[in-house]
Amino acid sequence: MIEFEMPKPIAQQSYVLKTVAENMMRPVSRYFDEHEHEIPWDYINFMHMAMRATGAGSLAPPERKEDEEKKEEKKSRPPIAYQMLAFMLEMLSWGDVGMYLCTPGGGLGAAAVEAAGTPEQKRKFLARFAEEKPTFAAMAMTEPHCGSDTSAIRTTAVLDKTTNEWVLNGEKIFVTAGQKSLEESNGFVVIWATIDPSAGRAGIRSFVVETGTPGVKVTKLEHKLGIRASDTASIVLQDARVPFENILGSPEIQTETTKGFKGAMATFDATRPLVSATGIGVARAALELLKEMAAAQGFQVRYGLPKTKLTNFEREIIDMEVLLQSAWLLVIKSVWMADNRKPNPLEASMAKLRAGDVVTKITQRAVELMGPLGYSRDYLLEKWFRDAKITDIYEGTGQINRLVVARNILGYTGRELR
Question: What's the predicted TM-score (pTM) here?
């Protein structure tokens, strides 16, 4: 059963993260928005140090010896790992979503390893996030000719049986944290490629390409509408050689059909609710500032009155609060399911779809209601409006998530409903 009372560990974490958001992120938010591609190392180093000290944020924290009583106590607690991440990401995105995307740790790359990797791969690749220096990981799927249609991926992986290595060739674009993962840390990028173009989705596999791999090059950093503190890279792979054991899932197509592809796609069931939480954080920031600015002008929301007795402004605020809370509840449900190992593709896509719509509507309406003040760069409302739209785009566009929701509800396959 879902508990609506915030667990004590999450409440304690939220208090600390609010301090970080208020004191380390908000004061420099505008600076890093205007100095795109400049890396916020002060924030990164602080967060890495804090996460190492607490064991938070690492998918493979160092083992600690505990007495049997403490182990039994932990077993009796309800699992809250993904819920903690959701609250963490919401609060950090309330501070600055672009800077949050620079937080060291596994990100999408580690989530892909967690979803589709073997126990040996998890130990090998996830342990590095506990190292002394900040480490980053990314996932590269989109290509110049295809985005959401993963069956059209052209990046190839061919097994060189002489050296027992995979040889990757292709180009990936719009890779979040791609530069930091390949050039600024002992990290990696999970590359989606096909081992058999004639097999369609059944031939798609994921490969862990580590920092320093010859033949892998960052060729471009995007100039973006929002989330400017986060690097978004293009990556070219030219005869990049990857060890055989770096493939996530089996290389056998005939015996596994689409399991490798489904294993990679399982990444999104875990991460889409978390991306949704980042959008909720941006929407909450905009709504709170809107109410503060309105209060400074003498406008207050009179809760409890019938709608007919409220001003249009009051009704607008209340409607936005309803949108925000409804989206957040979908996030909570989907991360609760992830924590309890319940299949959540429907709920994850519903949360992502709703959050993308809600953050766009709330930030846009906040700018409109404040007029010239909302449009002015003297306030962060216009920045949050620009930051908001990415929630509806990455990790599956709103259109794709609508299809996922429809397929799950109606019982159609991807081939039957496109």
Answer: 0.91
